Amino acid sequence: MIVITGASSGVGLELARLYKKAGKKVVNISRSKSEAADINILENLREGPEIIKVAKAVEAINEPIEAIINCIGVYNQEKFGKISEDEIKRLMSTNVKAPMLLLSSLIDRIKKDEADVLNVISKAGVYGSSSNPVYVASKFAERGFTLSLQEELKATKSRVISFCPGGINTGLFGKASADINTTGWMDPADIALFIKQILDLPKSMEVSEVLINRKSIK
After folding, report:
1. Can you give the pLDDT at residue 171?
2. pLDDT value at position 185?
3. Nearest to 117 by CA among 62, 167, 157, 81
4. CATH fold of the domain at 2-212
């Protein structure tokens, strides 16, 4: 089975559709139901007890995990001088704590099933920015955790992929009430296809990190 956090919209939904078409059982973990998932585990993944509950629900599914793909994420644009504690907590909880606790809780199952892990991070986890420093910090932390997970699983058949795309035309910015024109940005369906192609590679090949910059064509 393929476990996807955030399979109710954006890249996660496109991935769920692709894997469903390929005949895989898809498990969605998010606040909202995914039309393409076989199993929906509905939690918001903000607090520890919720995340542990989700991990136990995944453990209870009697089918090997082929891959866990983390697509959940929240955004904000608080600039220096305007950064708030509430937003730090919100972004760090969803973007960092959720994948860290979920994957840590499932680590024995990941090793047993030889499951792959792909974390959809952002190019914000590679480059700094003064326009959204809290978001950038959360993505650097998520990338650091992903690289550490690579070390944990390097002697196993599980592959760990840090996936850092640039601007994708999803609802991420609208949900944060950010005034950003996403016209011409990358299509989430194209990103999902690329992710599946990476995970479909032979187990002897680990694409450890991917950085995709949006290319503007005038």
Report:
1. 60
2. 77
3. 157
4. Rossmann fold (3.40.50)
